[in-house]
Design a protein that fits this description.
The protein is mainly alpha-helical and 173 residues long. The protein is 70% helix and 0% strand. Helix 2 runs antiparallel to helix 3 (33-48), helix 7 crosses helix 9 and helix 8 crosses helix 9 (149-160). 25% of the residues are buried.
């Protein structure tokens, strides 16, 4: 009974958002389990977040959720240009959307602004490089489009709660 009640609470847009995140997690699983874990945790967070307020009214339209192919296209563009400064207008152009549409779509799909999405991709790339190479953190930061090691450390600690060096030591054991 409890399962049926929770399923009834799910709105169609929420189901689509969760489906997009789970599709992306499945696609990322063979290549990068860390990326898949992030996407699955976002999907779980969406399921745990009530989609309606106390009065039963919907929180608003979520019709701008990105289809999975468009989300992969944007992620591929970011990954292909990760070593340089990326502007929202460039992302929007690659996705063939206006900057406003892109911002709303990324927020509806991933819960992130365009700059937060780019930073997330930079940090995921940094994680991959830290596991795959013995390069210095300063070099990894530059490869990922961050200014310096301090920038990488601040962003990494904010996102994951520990420094890149500590994460690298823990992940390698």
């Amino acid at each position: 009974m409890a399962l049926a009640a929770s399923e009834a609470r799910l709105t169609r847009p929420l189901q689509l958002r969760v489906a997009v995140l789970l599709d992306q997690a499945l696609a990322a699983l063979p290549a990068d389990p860390t990326d898949a874990k992030v996407l699955v945790s976002r999907a779980r967070a969406l399921l745990e977040t009530p989609s309606r307020d106390e009065s039963g009214a919907s929180k608003g339209p979520v019709s701008c959720v990105l289809p999975a192919w468009r989300a992969r296209q944007i992620a591929a563009f970011v990954d292909g240009n990760i070593g340089r400064t990326l502007y929202s207008a460039e992302l929007a152009g690659a996705a063939k959307m206006s900057t406003g549409q892109l911002g709303r779509a990324l927020k509806a799909t991933f819960g992130l602004s365009p700059s937060e999405f780019v930073m997330q991709r930079r940090l995921l790339m940094a994680q991959r490089l830290m596991l795959a190479t013995d390069d210095a953190l300063a070099q990894i930061a530059q490869l990922c489009g961050l200014c310096d090691q301090a920038h990488l450390s601040r962003a990494f600690r904010k996102a994951y709660g520990q420094t890149p060096a500590a994460w690298r030591r823990g992940a390698r054991t």
